[in-house]
Model the fold of this input.
Amino acid sequence: MNVEDLQSQLGQCYNGSQDPNVQTAAANANQYTEMFKQGQMTKDEYTQVMSDIARTNEINRSADNLQVLEYMNVTINALISLASAVA
Amino acid sequence: MKKLLLLIALSLLPGCTLVDAYMLTHFDPNEYKLITDIRAEAQASKGQCNNAVISKINADKLASDTKLFQLYSEHIPRNNDMITASKDLNEIAQGLSNMYAKETKVSSGFCTIKFQSIEQSANKLQTVLGGRPR
Done:
């Protein structure tokens, strides 16, 4: 499997996912690979920015978890207020 | 009828998630200030990548500030997601600082990508921190 095959897989990830985080990660990986192929980044730099994609995914996952909990917190407090009004 | 609806609504929420959501860490203005500073620094720094001397100073400052954010978040109770995220954010910033310490020439494209990545992640975390219950 060569670089072009892997870039094609990234394109499939981009087109096949509805998740904007996945689409951004795939687009970034493709852009960084193109920059590396054109000599705009060293091997060390390329390795680091590709590793950062995984770190960014982890940050997005944590942030998304917290956003769900925040939404639920608002809902729970609204339900508690409703119960207080009923009682 | 309202009581019935309330019972149905509560029973639909999974147990652990329900507790996590109810016990959610409250808004902390210091934590919010730290992530806002990081975002603003990264935003300003990405436009200075053509100047290696200034960029090295910017990279070192962001590595230090993201470390402060990580350490500040570390002992806040029920804050596991933010602890994980702050550690990852520091690793991204520390990588750029290390590269300036190790290499004589760091490419402008790499520098811009790194600061942009820090800015975008900080923006995401700032949104979450700002939305915490008061």
